[in-house]
Amino acid sequence: MTNQIYPCLWFDGQAQAAAKFYCSIFKNSKITSDNQMVVTFELDGKKFMGLNAGPQFKFNEAVSFVVDCETQEEIDHYWNALTSGGGSEGNCGWLKDKFGVSWQIVPIVLPRLLSNPDKAKNVMDAFLKMKKFDIAALENA
Q: Cα–chain-centroid distance for residue 3?
């Protein structure tokens, strides 16, 4: 038997709706099992569990999911999809979806730009002013 580590997300009766929402956004995604209490699903081939457990606990920024993006089109897709229907934009690539789950939508070029000593300060100054990352603006900083 192989041990597998995956997140379990606590919802107040919205686990199935959340799983369907997330599966509609990420490629290679599907619901793998579903009952009244628990739904398991895969996002881009990675396993998740949604638990209908009630209002006792809420999501917060202590845990977030990072989505690495190669292109501005990918950033725009995930940003727009995850904030749709009641999500909210945060700063520096952070957002909350309509269920309250925190996400970071990050361009994969960011670490390279920040490690360039000639550009790092300008890149940092630029991205601290952004909500959704703009790759061209970061590269031109």
A: 25
